[in-house]
Specification:
With about 240 residues, this protein is of the alpha/beta class. The protein has two domains: about 40 residues, no CATH class; about 190 residues, Rossmann fold. Helix content is about 20%, strand content about 35%.
């Protein structure tokens, strides 16, 4: 491999070919960038992580005072999980990922944030299907079935309409979201990243389950395109407006 590009890992998965790559972007002062690809689609890049951080911050800021137990659906390069752990109110964090290779990257230190997650005693990485666990009665913690959480943060699909797998579709229905809400504390919060603009139809679906729903547009610089890009973070709370 050249100095400017290396493939750190490659796996065949049920969702397609998964690869972890590292490259240097000469146009950005030789910046080292880590990328995750699934098939021909880019799932994650360390060059763009502002929205992943905003997902954790906006979701946790919607909670009241106290200590909070949190679930993150989708590990990726770890930005949402690490951002959540920066909140002193987080008592325990469970991160669920369907791809065991992604968990191994963090455990083996192949990605920059792996050591941060590994060294924080509040954090557990769990290999599992977030959507199947959300639909189940047992929930997200295999050590404590039916346990409820204060906040659930989701960063897996590109958007509620642009899915990594068709079987995820039922999650974004009222029935799927009701099943998820059953794993939240009475005033719990669900927050979701989307690469699409705010979707009025999905907002109505969220409002069928949650008392308070907000769609936040998060803008960030895109140096590769030399322009500003934007994504959406939905924050839905079982608690009514304060």
């Amino acid at each position: 491999m050249s100095r400017d590009f290396s493939e750190l890992d490659f796996r065949k998965t049920p969702l397609g070919d998964l690869s972890l790559r590292r490259r240097r972007v000469r146009s950005l002062d030789d910046l080292e960038v880590f990328e995750v690809k699934l098939g021909e689609a880019f799932l994650m890049s360390s060059l763009f992580h502002e929205v992943e951080v905003a997902l954790a911050d906006l979701g946790l800021e919607a909670l009241g005072a106290g200590s909070h137990d949190v679930v993150v659906g989708g590990l990726g390069l770890g930005y949402t999980a690490v951002a959540a752990l920066k909140h002193s109110t987080v008592r325990e964090l469970i991160v669920v990922d369907a791809l065991d290779a992604v968990i191994e990257w963090h455990q083996r230190g192949l990605v920059p944030l792996g050591s941060t997650l590994n060294n924080d005693p509040r954090c557990r990485l769990i290999h599992g299907d977030f959507f199947a666990l959300a639909a189940s009665t047992a929930g997200f913690d295999p050590a404590s079935p039916t346990r409820r959480f204060h906040c659930i943060l989701l960063d897996i699909d590109h958007s509620p309409r642009n899915l990594l797998h068709p079987r995820h579709g039922s999650f974004y229905s009222p029935a799927g979201l009701h099943a998820l809400a059953a794993h939240l504390e009475p005033e719990g919060v669900f927050a979701l990243w989307s690469d699409d603009p705010p979707d009025d139809e999905f907002i109505l679906t969220l409002k069928a389950v949650f008392a308070t729903v907000k769609a936040h547009i998060v803008k960030f610089a895109n140096p590769l395109l030399d322009r500003e890009s934007a994504s959406t973070v939905y924050v839905a709370s079982l608690a009514g407006p304060g």
